[in-house]
User: What shape does this take?
Amino acid sequence: MTEPRIEHHRPVEYRLADHRLQRDGFTVAPTADGRRIEVTGSCPGCGGHTTVLWEYGIPSGHKGFLGRSGARSIDRPVGARTVYCDCGHVHANRPAEAWDQGCGAYWQVELP
Assistant: This one.
C-alpha cells in the first residue's frame, strides 16, 4: 500500500520567479518505455504538485529521413534541467498568454 500524497498548495499570485537548483524534494526517474524522464515534486513557489516529462530518443515506428536502418539512438539527457510549475491551480494575475499552467515559478533539478 502506498501512502497518500498530501499537497500543500498555497494560493500565491502568479509571478515569474527563479528558485534556482533544487537538490531535494524531487523524484527523477525514467519511464517504463525508456524514452522519457519524469520529474515529480512540489513547486517551491506555491507548493502544488508538479510533474514534468522529458522525451528523448527516437519514437518507435519512426521512419524519418534516415529510415529505420539509419536511425540513431539519442543519449538520455543528464545534468541540470529547468522545471516549471504546472500545478494546474488557479493563480491570481496569471496572464492569458502564459505558457505554463502554474504559479510562474521555475527551478532546476539535476538529472542523473
About this structure: The beta strands are 17-21, 26-30, 36-42, 49-55, 79-84, 105-111. The chain is about 0% helix and 35% strand. The first strand starts at residue 17 and ends at 21. Confidence is low (pLDDT under 50) at residues 67-72.
